[in-house]
């Protein structure tokens, strides 16, 4: 009722004289749905397409959009080539408020105030606006053209973001170019998210994605420079060399872009190409638990025992994450259950560390060596990594490798290099650790502003 009253006051506030006021009072819509229908229907023909684009992005955006980002949204039409028309960008970003009337409002986003200045964002004026736009009720009124289906809108935003990124064909971007292309960071980071939410992309959007995801395209290189899916927390790296960027199949598998994976495989992409933090496409998809993608890769003869990456092989990656269906799939394809390497030494140790009992049982049923000697278990700490060469044992997570406390050599990075702790039982190691901490070990902890050293 409060929102309905606000909308009525907005309508009455536009009356310029008593005659207009009397006419408005006589025709005020009695319900909130009818009020929104009236507001949408009153948008001019010239602004209607812009309003539709703005409302679509505000309704389904992955994060709040700044006023400058929305000013560029109106200039994107994925049906044309190029999709982005610089001449169509709003000269005055505040025109967004006039185009969409009382359906949108401005606010200040302080979420990242410790790292950046507050942003002026545009949002839907009330949750009921989105509720009406996505409801079935809108399709029966005069404003039916503004009705929104989630799958259609996510596809449109993905296509628009892809089209926006395709303009960056330069071999090298300047670090200050983000000031001129406000939507670049959002498009790079979230086009794949919208594609995932859509599920199966339309043929047209898939074709745009294929154009972007070409190893020979600088637009592809610049996408990864803007946002690296391997390290999504990183800031843009405009100097990242093309040779350091994995092939498109790797990122398509990592991001669970099934349509893209199929198209790239049909184009004879190298299914076993090495590169990326996870070594290859199969390990990346296995770590993330993307069963359909893993199936497609295995059907194209991906090497189930390929070595490399954080986890050494796909089985260890899936075991560490506890993806039972994935582990079964890889074992059925004759994955080496005792393969050594990676962050946790082997699949059994990885699953044991994660406490994934069902996975441990599957590995033991396939004759995993319960006494296998592992590589270093490396654990991230505030100061870097602690490496623990591991011995054998039994009954970890009730079924697998119990780590022997007598026999660890713990190494901890300090500002001066490495300090080794002499071997002993677990209690001795703990006591020595506490004494050394009291003696003044410095742990470095990453913070938004850099490093803080704590004595």
TrEMBL record:
Q: What positions belong to coiled-coil segments?
A: none
The keyword Chaperone belongs to this UniProt entry's keyword annotation: no
Which PROSITE patterns does the record match to this protein? ANK_REPEAT
Return the ANK repeat spans. 247-276, 277-309, 310-342
Gene3D superfamilies hit by this protein: Ankyrin repeat-containing domain
The segment(s) forming the GPI inositol-deacylase winged helix domain are 49-141
Q: Where is the composition biased (Basic residues)?
A: 432-445
List, as start-end ranges, the regions of compositional bias called Basic and acidic residues. Answer: 422-431
Give the span(s) annotated as Disordered: 414-455
Q: Which UniProt keywords apply?
A: ANK repeat
Q: Which InterPro entries match?
A: Ankyrin_rpt, Ankyrin_rpt-contain_sf, GPIID_WHD
Keyword Electron transport on entry:
no
Q: Which PANTHER family match?
A: AMELOGENIN, GPI INOSITOL-DEACYLASE
Q: What is this protein called?
A: GPI inositol-deacylase winged helix domain-containing protein
Source organism of the structure: Clohesyomyces aquaticus
Starting at the broadest rank, the lineage of the source organism is:
Eukaryota, Fungi, Dikarya, Ascomycota, Pezizomycotina
